[in-house]
């Protein structure tokens, strides 16, 4: 059975644990520690061996490595739960439930770097609680409640649109994974794929590497590469978890893609291109491409281009350092910037390394905006040229 933390109200058969309750798993024990703040039912699980020694804590979305869970998600479902109220509860949970625990416990969080569930998560997957007490801003012993709330809420961006839908899925339940996979195991010939794309509301999602996508892709398809920060960008850019999806995937990886989509609530893959993009090409179907140039090419006659550079990195990255004159059109909110892209001039897109800019290019092209050029290698490549840039500002000093 599924075990929920205290106060949870699932609409299906599950165990709603009590604070302090102990579950026996073979010779080991798992103790429930109710730690509300991220959500009301957020819970930490203390792992205890057969000799009674405490080994670690599975902290869910309460405590991450270098960060803590954002308190602004549950309010999207339960209006009276303001982010200030949840932040205050999280302050108490950390100080009264987690910080008193032994320093040698290993922290096992739910998420790491790249997740939208926090602001500044480390790429490390585990750490000792003692080290987190020394290095995690949210565990400072001298931090007041007011300071904690202010620092936690500062700089929070709008959560991805699928988050509230995931909360409701946790409450209401969802289709079994076997059914999700059975529905997705629908190989379509190029002609059948084209018919399905034209006659349904499905998004054509191309998950190949960006270098393959720019060389050729199905017109109006959206690129989000499976080998990049895949699930978070799917969640950020495809708002409706019930959206039908048609896949273009590397051959043999279709099941992996369906699995990773399902893990973030996207359970409506209705088919995939049998034989991958090679089959589409072999069938002489229509192909679109993304124009891409090197940073060195951008540097040529840059004065004529400087007002036509669009940086799709996040605001913090842009403020820290950017191409002089470039406009920040964050990928997360690209739809809000559509009117800023020129209609009668070629413009240039870049991100940090070349993944996000191709996502942006695919979205713009799917909306009929084709007068764009991608900068291969992104800002990392631009920094190696003489293109003028703003002075670097350490992100920790930005307000």
Can you describe what's shown?
There is one protein chain. The chain folds into 3 domains: 3-164, Metallo-beta-lactamase, Chain A (4-Layer Sandwich); 174-282, 3-Layer(aba) Sandwich (Oxidized Rhodanese, domain 1); 292-397, Rhodanese-like domain (Oxidized Rhodanese, domain 1). Strand 14, helix 9 and strand 15 (269-273) form a beta-alpha-beta unit. By secondary structure, the chain is of the alpha/beta class. The protein contains 14 helices and 20 strands. Helices cover 30% and strands 18% of the residues. The strands form 5 sheets. The chain has a 6-stranded mixed sheet. It has a 5-stranded parallel sheet with strand order 11-15-14-12-13. Helix 1 (83-98) crosses helix 3 (145-153).
How are the SSEs ordered, and which strands pair?
Blueprint: E1 3-4, E2 15-16, E3 22-25, E4 28-34, E5 43-48, E6 54-60, E7 63-64, E8 67-68, H1 83-98, E9 106-109, E10 127-128, H2 129-135, H3 145-153, H4 162-172, H5 177-184, E11 187-188, H6 190-199, E12 203-206, H7 210-215, E13 222-223, H8 230-237, E14 245-248, H9 254-263, E15 269-273, H10 276-282, E16 292-293, H11 295-299, E17 309-311, H12 315-320, E18 327-328, E19 347-350, H13 356-366, E20 372-375, H14 378-382
Parallel strand pairs: 1-2, 6-9, 11-15, 12-13, 12-14, 14-15, 16-20, 17-18, 17-19, 19-20
Antiparallel strand pairs: 3-4, 4-5, 5-6, 7-8, 9-10
Helix pairs in contact: 1-3, 5-9
């Amino acid at each position: 059975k599924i075990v929920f933390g205290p106060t949870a109200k699932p609409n299906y058969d599950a165990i709603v644990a009590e604070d302090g309750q102990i579950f026996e798993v073979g010779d080991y024990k798992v103790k429930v520690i109710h730690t509300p703040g991220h959500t009301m039912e957020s819970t930490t699980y203390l792992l205890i061996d057969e000799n009674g020694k405490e080994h670690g804590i599975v902290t869910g979305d309460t405590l991450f490595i270098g960060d803590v869970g954002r308190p602004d998600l549950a309010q999207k479902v339960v209006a009276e739960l303001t982010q200030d109220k949840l932040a205050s509860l999280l302050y108490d949970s950390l100080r009264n439930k987690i910080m008193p625990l032994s320093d040698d416990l290993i922290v096992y969080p739910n998420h790491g770097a790249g997740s939208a569930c926090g602001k500044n998560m480390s790429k490390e997957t585990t750490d000792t609680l003692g080290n987190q007490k020394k290095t995690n801003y949210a565990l400072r012993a001298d931090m007041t409640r007011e300071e904690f709330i202010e620092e936690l809420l500062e700089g929070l961006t709008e959560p991805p649109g699928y988050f509230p839908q995931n909360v409701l899925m946790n409450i209401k339940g969802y289709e079994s994974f076997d059914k999700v996979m059975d529905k997705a195991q629908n190989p379509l010939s190029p002609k059948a794929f084209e018919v399905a794309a034209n006659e349904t509301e499905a998004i054509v999602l191309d998950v190949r590497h960006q270098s393959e996508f720019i060389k050729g892709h199905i017109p109006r398809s959206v690129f989000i590469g499976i080998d990049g920060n895949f699930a978070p960008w799917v969640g950020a850019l495809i708002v409706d978890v019930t959206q039908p999806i048609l896949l273009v995937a590397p051959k043999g990886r279709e099941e992996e893609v369906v699995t990773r989509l399902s893990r973030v609530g996207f359970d409506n893959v209705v088919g995939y291109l049998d034989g991958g993009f090679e089959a589409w090409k072999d069938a002489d179907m229509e192909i679109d491409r993304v124009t891409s140039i090197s940073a060195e090419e951008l540097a040529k006659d840059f004065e004529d281009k400087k007002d036509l550079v669009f940086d799709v990195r996040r605001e913090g990255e842009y403020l820290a350092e950017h191409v002089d004159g470039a406009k920040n059109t964050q990928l997360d909110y690209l739809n809000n910037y559509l009117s800023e892209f020129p209609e009668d001039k070629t413009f240039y897109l870049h991100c940090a390394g070349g993944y996000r800019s191709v996502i942006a290019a695919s979205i713009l092209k799917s909306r009929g905006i084709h007068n764009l050029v991608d900068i291969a290698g992104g800002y990392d490549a631009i920094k190696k040229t003489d293109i003028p840039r703003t002075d670097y500002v350490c992100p920790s000093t930005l307000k």
